[in-house]
């Protein structure tokens, strides 16, 4: 399954918001509207493909 996250900057900090399909379910699982890098890493380890939008290459989001 493919999960798309959009990186948005607020007050100099970057946050990953899930967009599209699966957003509500991931919010329920994590208890947050945003995903931390550790969440993205765990999802990749489970076999999910993560598409990252809006982050610079090489950022902490693992592009």
What's the β-strand tally?
Answer: 4
Strand order of the largest sheet: 3-2-1-4
Number of domains: 1
Helix content: 25-40%
Mean pLDDT: 85
Order of helices and strands: EEHEHE
Low-confidence stretches: none
- Secondary-structure-based class equals alpha+beta
Number of helices: 2
Biggest β-sheet, characterized?
4 strands, mixed
Note the gap between the termini.
17 Å
Anisotropy-based shape:
globular
Beta-strand percent range: 35-45%
| Radius of gyration computed on alpha carbons | 11 Å
Task: Give structural notes.
The chain is an alpha+beta fold. It has one domain (2-53). Helix content is 27%, strand content 37%. It contains two helices and four strands. The protein has a four-stranded mixed sheet with strand order 3-2-1-4. Strand 1 and strand 2 form a beta hairpin. The longest helix is centred in the middle third of the chain and has 9 residues, at 37-45. It is globular, with a radius of gyration of 11 Å. The mean pLDDT is 85.
């Amino acid at each position: 399954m493919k999960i798309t996250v959009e990186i948005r900057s607020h007050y100099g900090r970057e946050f990953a918001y899930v967009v599209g399909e699966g957003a509500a379910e991931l919010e329920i699982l994590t208890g947050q509207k945003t995903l931390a890098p550790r969440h993205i890493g765990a999802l990749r380890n489970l076999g999910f493909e993560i598409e990252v939008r809006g982050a610079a290459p090489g950022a902490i989001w693992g592009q």
